[in-house]
């Protein structure tokens, strides 16, 4: 399990792990949604388009394989954290929907393409 980097260590603060190793923290209340975090990350990371991105919860299954739960845009963060019963889950910002044409993504949004490239390398797909 991912115990050392728990999903919620401080009340009403969510840590979001990025593919480059950075961690972004977000305070939230009962009205804050997943989409609010996505839009803030879009701005902080200078991304033009985020339709390929999603927030996901990562956890290690008993077989020690990593599993991802895709969060929906309208979900309140407080609800996401409350219904999470797995110890050590992490919230990640990931390219969850691979672009049909990565070259077009590079033309439209070089920062998003770079993020995808880092993620593919981190996932061990660049062999």
Automatic annotation (TrEMBL):
Transmembrane annotation, as ranges: none
Domain FERM: 12-127
Residue ranges annotated for the Ras-associating domain, each copy included: 13-111
Annotated Gene3D superfamilies: 1.20.80.10, Phosphatidylinositol 3-kinase Catalytic Subunit, Chain A, domain 1 (3.10.20.90)
Signal peptide: none
SUPFAM superfamilies in the cross-refs: Ubiquitin-like
Pfam families documented for this protein: RA_2
GO BP terms, alphabetized: signal transduction
Name used for this protein in its record: FERM and PDZ domain-containing protein 3
Organism of derivation: Sphenodon punctatus (Tuatara)
Source taxonomy: Eukaryota, Metazoa, Chordata, Craniata, Vertebrata
């Amino acid at each position: 399990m991912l115990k050392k980097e728990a999903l919620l260590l401080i009340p009403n603060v969510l840590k979001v792990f990025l593919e480059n190793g950075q961690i972004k923290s977000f305070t939230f209340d009962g009205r804050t949604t997943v989409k609010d975090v996505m839009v803030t990350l879009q701005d902080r990371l200078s991304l033009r388009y985020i339709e390929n991105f999603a927030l996901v919860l990562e956890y290690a299954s008993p077989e020690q394989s990593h599993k991802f739960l895709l969060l929906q845009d309208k979900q309140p963060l407080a609800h996401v954290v409350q219904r999470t019963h797995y110890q050590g889950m992490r919230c990640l910002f990931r390219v969850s929907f691979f672009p049909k044409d990565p070259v077009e993504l590079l033309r439209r949004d070089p920062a998003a393409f770079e993020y995808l490239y880092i993620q593919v390398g981190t996932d061990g797909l660049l062999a």
